[in-house]
Specification:
five-stranded mixed sheet, globular, Nucleotidyltransferase, domain 5
């Protein structure tokens, strides 16, 4: 197995603190976390794959690594995310948690770059408003937002515009939203082997890791040098 060559002494303080009580080799933990959020693998798949490499690790331990490390990766990625366009396509998709459907709000620009995402328990005006507030705070205000016929999304945008001097143009044109609906598929393909989440907060963390890895694959991370890096090579510096 290829080493990541990131010594613990070189880690940022916040990440080093989280890793303090995780006693496995760093490269093993990073590999498992990256594979889990990037590929169609279950936790038990990873347990078996590590066993084949003579590394004894329980699937519940891998889950703990994911929950502890993904928020750190996601926070660091935000600092290196490329700017996005000002024409947004917004929609929500369904994710099952404990047998019930929850809602992943997502938006992409017209080029297919991910604007932002937010996992919520309810599908209503408050959830949509929270998504728009978060997306605008992180990415700046768009010129236009295209949505489907959702009344709650429209109401949320009207509430946002009521507080703005320059209103955001709102379009409800379904075919223009094909780009975000197609982008949902990459996220849903990754969650399918998980067979539904058991806990809302864990689902939120794991989905953020999947989204970050999806953005890295789409080339949304700023260049770290002149040589074009693979998605894996871009992932590992997020811990340093």
């Amino acid at each position: 197995m290829k080493k990541t060559a990131i010594p613990r002494t070189a880690l940022a303080t916040g990440i080093a603190k989280v890793l303090k009580r995780l006693h496995y080799p760093l490269d093993v933990m990073l590999l498992c976390v990256r594979w889990y959020v990037a590929y169609w693998l279950s936790l038990r798949n990873l347990e078996e794959m590590m066993s084949e490499r003579a590394i004894g690790v329980d699937h519940s331990t891998v889950h703990r690594w994911v929950i502890k490390l993904v928020p750190l990766f996601a926070k660091t990625f935000r600092k290196h995310k490329r700017p996005v366009g000002t024409s947004w396509r917004m929609d929500e998709t369904y994710i099952k948690v404990k047998g019930s459907w929850k809602y992943l709000y997502r938006a992409v620009d017209k080029a297919g770059n991910t604007i932002d995402f937010l996992f919520r328990a309810n599908r209503d005006k408050a959830a949509a408003r929270r998504f728009f507030d978060k997306a605008i705070a992180q990415n700046g205000a768009p010129d236009t937002v295209t949505i489907d016929k959702s009344g709650s999304n429209l109401a949320a945008l009207h509430a946002v515009n009521a507080e703005r001097e320059t209103p955001i143009m709102v379009r409800q044109v379904k075919y223009l939203n094909n780009v975000v609906e197609q982008d949902h598929r990459a996220i849903k393909r990754r969650t399918r082997p998980m067979l539904g989440f058991k806990d809302f907060d864990c689902a939120r963390v794991i989905l953020s890791g999947i989204e970050v890895m999806h953005m890295i694959k789409k080339g949304q991370m700023e260049d770290l040098g002149k040589i074009k890096l693979s998605a894996a090579q871009q992932f590992y510096p997020l811990v340093s």
